[in-house]
Amino acid sequence: MSAFFQKFNFTKSEIRVLLVLLIILTLGFGIKITKGLISDDSAVFDYTKTDKLFKQKSDNALTVLSDTNIIVDSLFSKEELKKIGNIKNTEDSLKITEGKKKKGKKGDGLKEKSINLNTATKEQLVLLPGIGDSTADKILAYRKEHGVFKVIEDIMKIKGIGTKKFEKMKPFITTE
User: Fold this and answer.
1) What stretches of the chain show up as alpha helix (H) in DSSP?
2) Which residue, 124, 125, 123, is CA-closest to 139?
3) Do residues 131 and 124 make contact, with C-beta atoms less than 8 angstroms apart?
4) Is a pLDDT exceeding 90 seen at residue 27?
5) Could you tell me the pTM of the whole model?
């Protein structure tokens, strides 16, 4: 054996590493063979029960929803589905989104300078971008207390209307 190692010019530390690896491999194979001889075959799992259960569930797997002609994979029997709860309205459960309109921004239908702050009703004020019911009420209350708006910038005196909201509604409002 030493002639083999000398032929390939192994150092002493390389020889030691190879011997350790050879010993570990020998021990591993020995343990595996011994374990196979000692163990009994009773530990093998019997899959017949799970196969039968899988077959039963597979037979009930396809449930066809008659209203929509959609095949739904279900691993539940009809009785189990009744326990979970029936789907009454398939359109609601599928939430069809085809043909859905995009929601427009507030103020899209307004013309420039179309709402007079001094004469507008609550319904007209709510059409402005950034103005809801409560802000429209505040505008009407301000108008009662302080009189008419002299310039459109006066609307920023109302709590809740800052420069950002004002810039959004500016093209649509007037005081004349």
Assistant:
1) 2-7, 12-38, 48-59, 78-84, 90-94, 122-126, 133-146, 163-169
2) 125
3) no
4) yes
5) 0.40
